[in-house]
Design goal:
Blueprint (H helix, E strand, L loop, with lengths): L2 E12 L2 E12 L3 E5 L6 H8 L7 E6 L2 E2 L5 H7 L1 E3 L12 H11 L6 H15 L14 H13 L5 E5 L7 H16 L3 E5 L3 H7 L2 E6 L2 E6 L1 H5 L2 H8 L1 H8 L11
Parallel strand pairs: 3-8, 3-9, 6-7, 7-8
Antiparallel strand pairs: 1-2, 1-4, 4-5, 9-10
Helix pairs in contact: 3-4, 3-5, 4-5
């Protein structure tokens, strides 16, 4: 697999606060990478830097061979770098179909509104929302709004999709359905970076895991390597979780976080 995106020494300062500090990693085409870390670790800030919502203090983002560090959010979307948001906010005065049509029309370059609607309906069928296409977006339940958020992102025809806690607030059955959707998206060749607190989801989906703590990348690698890393155990996982995953006794002296 070839590299589709590189983050090189990326930093963001808010006054004296180093929200993201010298973070470097790469994403390969078609892989699923988990991004984990405690609350306030800088995960969403990192995604905001990658998609132009925030301006980096230093460092670079290289997407598809181009330096896109200074891009704006609409440019990121049009180039194939899409993201979802932790707080789902559909366009409130539009139908489900119109929400997705907007992405196809303004980000994916559909030739006209009719073509954009046809593409939007295909994405709604893919995520299972086609029967609700003409309902107001505000009438959807939380699980359906999460699916709508995915459909909106897919309408941008992404090569890389950054998912910010798409499973938050879902029950076990809904999470299983979301996992199947994410696997189906990756099977299309779309690279996924997944911000997630549910370790069951991260370990089930991710080929690699990145770990942020206090804005720094403290570990990265395959899931078993990362959950065995003492720095990750201490900063985020806790000894009891790590022990369950590794089938060993808890590490004495390491508190559960």
């Amino acid at each position: 697999m070839s590299t589709i995106l590189e983050v090189r020494d990326l930093s963001k300062n808010f006054g004296g606060l180093h929200a993201v500090k010298n973070v470097s990693f790469s994403l390969k085409e078609g892989e699923i990478v988990g991004l984990i870390g405690p609350n306030g670790a800088g995960k969403t800030t990192l995604v905001n830097l990658m998609t132009g919502v925030l301006k980096a203090t230093s460092g670079h983002v290289i997407f598809n061979g181009q330096n896109v560090t200074a891009q704006r959010p609409f440019q990121a979307a049009r180039s194939g770098l899409a993201r979802t948001f932790q707080i789902v906010q559909p366009f409130p005065h539009m139908t489900v179909l119109e929400n997705v049509t907007a992405g196809a029309l303004f980000a994916a370059g559909a030739a006209n509104r009719r073509q954009a609607q046809e593409q939007a309906m295909e994405h709604l069928e893919f995520v299972g929302l086609a029967p609700l296409a003409f309902r107001p977006a505000t009438s959807l339940t939380l699980p359906s709004r999460k699916r709508l958020e995915l459909a909106k992102s897919l309408a941008m025809n992404p090569r890389v999709l950054l998912l910010d806690e798409v499973n938050a607030g879902l029950n076990t059955s809904e999470i299983e359905q979301a996992l199947a959707l994410m696997r189906a998206i990756a099977a299309r060749g779309i690279t996924i970076m997944l911000i997630e607190h549910l370790m069951k989801v991260v370990l089930s989906l991710s080929e690699r895991i990145l770990v942020l703590h206090h804005g720094e990348l403290i570990s990265q690698g395959d899931p078993q390597t990362v959950i065995s890393d003492p720095r990750v155990v201490e900063a985020y996982l806790g000894s009891k979780f790590a022990a369950r995953q590794q089938g060993i006794a808890p590490i004495a002296g390491v508190a559960h976080v």
